[in-house]
Amino acid sequence: MYIFSAHDHGGVTREYFECCLAALPTFQLHGRYALFEGETDHLLPSTDSALLRSGVFYAIGKLMAHCLLNTGIAAYGLAKPFVQYMVTPIIDDITPFTIKPDDIPDLTFREALQIVRLNNLVCFNVRYPDQEIELLYLKSTHE
User: What is the pLDDT of residues 70-86, one digit of tens each?
Assistant: First the structure.
């Protein structure tokens, strides 16, 4: 009987974590709660209250940390501004970044933002202290 020794250089561990990361963007908790929303390469964590209460994002954070340590990759398909925010240790040190329309998962808000941008509208915030109301006006810069 021969016993051969083999060296494991972490290939199986890296493959395991890569498979976990690749499955995250399309994974659904209990078949109905999507963990991430948005388009490919512009994904953001879901804001579903059931997911937030369940603690699943804490577990995903731990998985992503292990993946980063073992493979050097923390996530596939996430929006770049979100990744930059996530890896910056001090919030005040975040460099300004550009949010593209594709980074906004809410289609209604994205369309409204594009209308504002295409029509060169500027937002004015007017506060009426005696009436305790605050109004937002959109005005064209062409006038």
Answer: 777 777 888 888 877 77
